[in-house]
Amino acid sequence: MDFKIKSLGKNKYRAKDIVNFAVKDSYIVSDEKRLLHNIFIDDKGYDPADMEKSFELAGPREKLYFDPAITRCAIVTCGGLCPGLNDVIRSIVMESYYRYGVHSILGIRYGYNGLNPAMGYHPVELTPELVENIHMDGGTILGSSRGGTDDMEILVNTLEKLSINILYTIGGDGTLKGAHKISELAKKRGYDLAVVGIPKTIDNDISFIQRSFGFETAFSKASDSIYAAHAEAKGAPNGIGLVKLMGRQSGFIAANAALAMNDVNYVLVPEVPFDLYGDHGFLSCLEKRLLNRGHAVICVAEGAGQDLIKKEQEKKSHDASGNIVLDDIGIFLKQAINKYFKEKKITINLKYIDPSYIIRSAPAVPNDSIFCAILGQYAVHAGMAGKTDLVIGQWNNVFIHIPIELAISRRKQIDPNSPFWNSVLEATGQPVSMVNAQS
Q: Is this model's pTM higher than 0.85 or not?
């Protein structure tokens, strides 16, 4: 694991002579001051080798690589929508314009596709006046899309033609992979381009990042659906409220929403397999719950139980980002539950709720808005200092720089043996395992 942050070269401009910081010298961050990845000491003491596994702190530097008076920036938002996108755009524009004096900021429309001239999307000039109130709205004023990374040389050609010095890429795993490639191609050309990523995914599944923006809003909005499912379940004999939430490979939204409400009886996530049938299977557990309590609430992440849905792998289709299009576990469970209890001759009242895109298109909740604003500010500090091929993140509540290669090295998922998942089990009362013993 390489924690070293790349730089375009030696910085030439003294920040305090140029930048309009509200706080002066005490605000400057040194490259030598770092944050340990592993902060724990065990009975063997502390391993000095862990010093190499430390993060560079985010924040303004004493010297800048770019002259703000002639610097041109571009912002691109990629992938699916996410709460807080406009907040981050606004923060980057305001920090660039008012603190650093960078007045040339372009917005790339509809993701990486906007850097392909063949698509016909022209960039928009971003000004403080234009972005002043955009944080009040969900979505992104720039538009977004998946894909657009088939020929990265075309994208770098466009950036070079536009004389862009700093590219801010706002997106998830696929976006960061594209940003890393852009950085590599620019370096190979000898093109001084700082590429700075801001982690956007409501699934919260980017490695070495404590949380991504939009995640808190997503599970907060999802809590409304759980509240409704609980009310419906309690309002009818043998009532069942079934809620499907986003979470392709990581079940953080479902788990956190369940913890926030404490009304969920079963949380089904991709990281924890379960059987449908058998003495220890999910349906048997659900039956016992109904017989004992008369109602149940189930929260399932979209990527859970995909192995239970019979469909040949070669028939799976992919979206523009290369993700496998998932089968609908919500509909599958709804049908399986109804069939199971019908065969048992037990009358149930099942209500299925799929908030889907409602939770990702909402404006950010206040705490997420604060987080977005700070991420945008730190992104500008990194870009102006010539840092490149990195993503801004948070670790142990400290803002840091993470090499993009490290952030995309693996998918962050729930550890079924972690205290976090144990908290979910204790809150729901569901069995530790709903898998039948193998003979």
A: yes
